[in-house]
UniProtKB/TrEMBL annotation:
An annotated GO BP: signal transduction
NCBIfam families membership: GGDEF
UniProt keyword annotations, A-Z: Membrane, Transmembrane, Transmembrane helix
Gene Ontology, cellular component aspect: plasma membrane
Species: Vreelandella sedimenti
Name of this chain's protein: diguanylate cyclase
Cofactors, names only: Mg(2+)
EC class name: transferase
PROSITE patterns: GGDEF
Domain of life: Bacteria
Length: 532
């Protein structure tokens, strides 16, 4: 019996296929372990290091720029006279809050030849107020730690002429230079320090410069390595550790990267897969020749079945009732097909709706708007649209933080969705704090009434907004346009007109609604350039 079984086609097929598979697996393991993966990891590490170097180059540009600005001020006859007390009008001429904000300075500190404070000017990071002082007292007390650190730096290195990182929240770039005459003749009469915060604005500048997401944090103590790389799935989080002054802390300059280099390098692995595929094709060819009746015929039936259920699944198909492997495959395919239909429906939902608020997104809004505009132009019905903007939402985020901002967006979105449902119109989230609505068969007057319902509903939330110049709670501004006005005969023209009306509402003090008219265009354009 055993001898007869060993001669069977099934046994020989299984033995041959098992041998080929075993050989392929051994080959893949050897190639992967000793050749492919080491090469991929080495290449990936080199790519990550290069990307970090881009970010560090951006930081170096900030260092060099600030140091050059410090040198320009320090090697100047006016500054030289000022630190000796011979130029009383120096501060009035050269210092203002506007200058600090435009140059993105946090502090400028002048020290005399004995290393004592001569003059301080800066913007308090806690409240954004600008102060000038002759000592670190009263309103300038927040400068005390920085000033002492600068004085310690002067004692350690009187020559200065350098730019360093100071730990803090946020970390700081500090450039310093001795004070000389413009021609650098004579002895130094003191030192000048300029401080620039590495805050969100600075990070945004670095991201624009490098095209990479950039993160910054302060690390207590010292890391053993200059670079740390953590890999999670297809994402790499890499950090470079930079020395600060004083040197008991480090700044971690990091970025997050997709493993594109790693995935691209898998091309090497495809050659191995191609070799395996060719080998498997050879085996499959032999199987087809030797087991035509056992394998191919049921597979053809299964193929016909899969083609038949590409539309509606026939639950009564005889293939689903089979008790062999083909029946199992048919039922598994049926379940997988149903699951695929479900996933496709979920994917459509995700691609057309905003994940934070659950409202339709800009993509679905634009599609619907094109359809509604076409219908309105065909039938001659009126059509109005709204653009809604949460008033001073950036101030809200800056004050309460982005998690609270997300909560606010969800509450406002849900409220406006309920109003839109009740009044029979379509609303979507089309920007950060921006929403858009389309109102078929609605005149501008009717749209204004519905906008008041929207605004009133948001007001009734009484969601706190203590830093809003408009009200103590969250409010909205609304711009309205109608399809039949001049210049608003297309979806883009319609939304542009609503946008101009929105900016007119902002120019009028916010927390109001405006209907677009051609006379608003110039005013809205001017407001667009001045309002946040």
């Amino acid at each position: 019996m055993l001898q007869r079984f060993s001669r069977s086609l099934r046994f020989r097929f299984l033995a041959a296929l098992s041998g080929v598979l075993l050989l392929a697996l051994i080959s893949l393991v050897i190639l992967s372990k000793w050749v492919i993966f080491p090469a991929l990891h080495k290449e990936e590490h080199a790519v990550v290091t290069k990307e970090l170097e881009k970010i560090e180059a951006g930081l170096n540009v900030s260092h060099e720029t600030l140091l050059a600005q410090a040198r320009d001020w320090a090697i100047w006859d006016d500054t030289y006279e000022f630190v000796q007390g011979n130029y009383p009008g120096y501060t009035d001429t050269n210092f203002s809050q506007q200058m600090f904000e435009e140059m993105h300075y946090q502090l400028m500190a002048f020290f005399n030849a004995e290393g004592e404070v001569h003059f301080l000017a800066g913007i308090n990071p806690a409240n954004g107020q600008y102060h000038t002082c002759r000592s670190v007292e009263r309103e300038c007390r927040w400068m005390d730690g920085l000033v002492h650190t600068m004085q310690a730096s002067i004692k350690e290195d009187p020559l200065q002429r350098k730019s360093a990182l100071y730990a803090g929240s946020p970390p700081l770039i500090v450039a310093s230079n001795p004070i000389f005459r413009t021609d650098e003749s004579g002895p130094s009469q003191g030192w000048l320090f300029k401080v620039r915060p590495m805050d969100a604005d600075w990070l945004s500048t670095i991201e624009r410069y490098t095209g990479l997401p950039t993160m910054l944090s302060v690390v207590n103590g010292k890391e053993d390595n200059d670079i740390a790389i953590n890999i999670t799935g297809n994402t790499i989080f890499a950090q470079r550790f930079l020395t600060t002054y004083p040197s008991n802390e480090q700044i971690a300059l990091g970025t997050q990267l997709k493993r594109t280099s790693y995935l691209a390098s898998l091309e090497t692995f495809r050659y191995v897969l191609l070799w395996t595929a060719c080998l498997m094709l050879l085996v499959i060819g032999l199987v087809l020749l030797l087991l035509e009746r056992i394998i191919l015929k049921p597979l053809k039936i299964l193929t016909s079945f899969t083609q038949q259920i590409s539309g509606d699944i026939d639950e009564s198909s005889s293939l689903l009732k089979r008790g062999d492997e083909i029946g199992i495959l048919a039922r598994a395919f049926q379940n997988q097909f149903k699951r695929q239909q479900q996933l496709n429906a979920e994917l459509i939902q995700l691609s057309t709706h905003d994940p934070l608020t659950g409202l339709p997104n800009r993509r679905l809004f634009d599609q619907r708007l094109q359809e509604v505009v076409n219908n309105a132009q065909t039938t001659g019905q009126s059509l109005s649209v709204m653009m809604i903007d949460i008033d001073h939402f950036k101030l809200f985020n800056d004050h309460y933080g982005h998690p609270e901002g997300d909560i606010c967006l969800r509450r406002v979105a849900q409220t406006m969705h309920e109003v839109a449902t009740a009044h029979g119109f379509f609303i979507a989230r089309t920007g950060g704090e921006e929403f858009s609505a389309m109102l078929p068969a609605t005149s501008a007057t009717q749209a204004m009434e519905k906008s008041q319902a929207l605004s009133h509903a948001v007001d009734q939330l009484r969601h706190p907004h203590q830093v809003s110049p408009v009200a103590s709670y969250v409010t909205v501004s609304i711009g309205i346009s109608q399809l039949d006005i001049e210049g608003a005969m297309t979806p883009s023209g319609l939304m542009t007109a609503a946008d101009q009306a929105l900016y007119a509402a902002k120019a009028d003090g916010r927390h109001t609604a405006k209907v677009y008219t051609p006379s608003l265009a110039n005013t809205a354009f001017s407001s667009h350039n001045t309002l946040p």
